[in-house]
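Lab meeting, item 3. Inverse folding demo.
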């Protein structure tokens, strides 16, 4: 049995009906448009915002040097489809993503490049310690990161002929997410 205390101010029937329908409408919106729609999860909302903010940005010309070989990969990154992954050495999510990429062999299906702005020695050690199977390029002075206004680690950005096409914030949860991002 529901017991209601006497309210100090009388409430009209209209106010009760409007309050009830407002509650039902808000509940309906939540249940059908937010709760059960995976496209509206908080991470994917952030990704959608980032994709809109970062879409069709043409990368400026600057060196993207691989630390071990001292080779500039800028032209290779800019040609066709490629994926760049912003990462830093003390990021556990970045390390988890590297493990997933290496174990899935997805790096053989597409051009994947790690991007770090740390010292050459840190980058070399990071690549060696994490058994990285693709080039990790040094973003000198954070030029690429600033050009894309990237703020997240890892941030995965798919490029098509040097223009941003898709963005994925954080690490991938499984091989299917990774494969879909890289190959489509």
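The presenter then showed the designed sequence:
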């Amino acid at each position: 049995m529901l017991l209601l205390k006497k309210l100090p101010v009388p409430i009209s029937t209209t106010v009760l009906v409007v309050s009830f329908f407002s509650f039902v409408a808000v509940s309906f919106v939540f249940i059908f448009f937010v709760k059960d729609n995976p496209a509206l999860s908080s991470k994917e909302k952030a990704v959608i915002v980032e994709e809109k903010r970062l879409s069709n940005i043409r990368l400026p010309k600057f060196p993207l040097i691989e630390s071990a070989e001292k080779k500039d990969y800028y032209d290779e990154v800019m040609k066709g489809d490629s994926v760049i992954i912003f990462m830093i050495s003390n990021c556990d999510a970045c390390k988890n993503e590297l493990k997933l990429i290496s174990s899935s062999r997805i790096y053989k299906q597409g051009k994947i490049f790690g991007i770090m702005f740390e010292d050459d020695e840190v980058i070399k050690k990071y690549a060696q310690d994490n058994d990285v199977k693709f080039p990790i390029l040094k973003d000198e002075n954070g030029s690429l990161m600033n050009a894309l206004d990237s703020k997240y680690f890892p941030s995965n950005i798919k490029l098509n002929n040097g223009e941003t096409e898709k963005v994925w914030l954080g690490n991938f949860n499984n091989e299917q997410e990774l494969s879909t991002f890289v190959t489509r």
